[in-house]
Amino acid sequence: MFDDLLEMQERGARDRSLGRSLADNPMSKPDVLPITDLQEWFSMFDAWRFGWSIEDAMAGHIDMPRDGRAARRA
After folding, report:
1. How far is CA 4 from CA 10, 43, 48, 59, in A?
2. Handedness of CA 62, 63, 69, 73 (dihedral sign)
């Protein structure tokens, strides 16, 4: 299971680098991948989303301050 989660994280990062959106999470399509174990499904869903988010942040798509402090809203 651990290897599957790592693969799903990598897939999420790769999908983000290809320009896919959060809505493209393959685990959000239960008709394609039937849900048999809700906990396992959510873990895979979350792993893909985490990988996607990491790639998004690394590519500079999220406007985050570099010093770690919260950004002020105008």
Report:
1. 10, 10, 10, 24
2. negative
Distance CA 16, CA 25 (A): 10
* Full DSSP string of 11-70: HHHHHHHTT--GGG-GGG-TTTS--S-HHHHHHHHHHHHHHHHHHHHHTT-S---TTSSP
21: left (phi over 0), alpha (psi -120 to 50) or beta: beta
- At residue 74, the pLDDT reads 47
Has this prediction a pTM greater than 0.90?
A: no
